[in-house]
Amino acid sequence: MTYCIALRLDDGLVFLADTRTNAGVDNISTYRKLHAFRPQADRVFVLESAGNLASTQQVLDRIEQDMADPETESLSTVTHLSDAALYVGRLSREVVEQHRGALGNGGSSTFILGGQIAGERPDILLVYPEGNYIRASDDRPFLQIGETKYGKLMLELAVESRVDMDDALTIALSSMISAARANLSVGAPYDLALYRNGSLELREARIEPDDPILHELQDLWIRQLLDAVAELPHLRLDDLGAHRQ
Amino acid sequence: MTYCIALRLDDGLVFLADTRTNAGVDNISTYRKLHAFRPQADRVFVLESAGNLASTQQVLDRIEQDMADPETESLSTVTHLSDAALYVGRLSREVVEQHRGALGNGGSSTFILGGQIAGERPDILLVYPEGNYIRASDDRPFLQIGETKYGKLMLELAVESRVDMDDALTIALSSMISAARANLSVGAPYDLALYRNGSLELREARIEPDDPILHELQDLWIRQLLDAVAELPHLRLDDLGAHRQ
Questions:
Q1: A108 touches chain B (CB under 8 A)
Q2: Do B226 and A161 touch (CB under 8 A)?
Q3: Which residues 153-172 in chain B show a CB within 8 A of chain A?
Q4: Which uninterrupted H or E stretch holds B89?
Q5: A5 touches chain B (CB under 8 A)
Q6: Can you give the pTM of this predicted structure?
Q7: For A64, which DSSP code?
Q8: Which of A125, A191, B67, B118 matches a 20 to 30 Å C-alpha distance to B236?
């Protein structure tokens, strides 16, 4: 499967994606699912994808081709981030429609699109296979696609605690590790992108599977768990009205 | 949905189940999903259920009826825990079969059966709707049914760390809170049962939704998360070969 995360924080945006693709457990590959676009100096986009790899790649190719043609709507020409989301949604639908005869109802993809166009506030949007979109809510300003359940708690805690970007990245990575640990279809290397509000400039990096930070994070969580248990007042069964039988 | 947990530890068994049932989000109820049986002095069983509530209740009624009839196979008469699992699996199949005409392929349930029959080692088994079963593995000696993904990490850490029963109960409850927090279809009150190996006696209790332990645990996790982040060496993007675009 896939696990992609986007967080909208007070000072910027954090994107993190795994790279594992699979067609059955006996056919595992590594592909980028996080793509950055800076078609003009006044705008920057990050696109994360989950779903059919062939459809995703065709959408990415269409995005590149459209940017090369100034007469066509593209990430270069859209006025608002929401227009960019609708544009990606339209491409996604067109690609799926093109293969409908062969793929039936399969082959669709879901995207997270984030970034900023100068003059607008930075944002993250989830683009559905149907071509429409939602923004991240103000109460839970993050989005996930793919194998989302294992690592959701950490993201919720992060946004509730209003952490800064560096801490958010660490927490996103912890969330990723949780998903990867539980599900073989999520795996390193991980691609990340950080966007500081107003900078119109992305910082990108890849975290390789042998990066010590991954083991450090995992060890830390185990230690924290044990500390947490040690700190807790033990459940007192008698207080809970426990009875024997 | 449902979330039920069973852990097999060095010194005993821990069972925890939520009580929320739903037929759509506008029809929520509270039902026990954790049931204890002590049909003879030489044996004790805990049965946890996920799936169709009507089927589950009919299975429970059949279990009670069979125990009342000494001529019939029942939890009183089975020789091994694995026979008890096969017995529950048979009832489960029979109940679903009885309603097949009306329910089609729906209506099935999955169970966790745990406990001890004197002379055998205590164990936990997962009974599939098909009527067969698996034991918890030695490497990951826990079972989950229902909404299992949100709280899996904590259970893995618990068994890896070889915690004792009290700590395991706390961790199981944390796992439950994680699931309930993320998914409306899991909710308090929570039923728990503890079995100390060889005791042939269960301790049971219910944790009500307003029990302060639930809030304490949740607060603790938030605090531990923030501590964890503070302790971590921050991700250094430059070390990761970050580049700008």
A1: no
A2: yes
A3: 153-154, 156-158, 160-161, 163, 166-167, 169-171
A4: helix B81-98
A5: no
A6: 0.83
A7: H
A8: A125
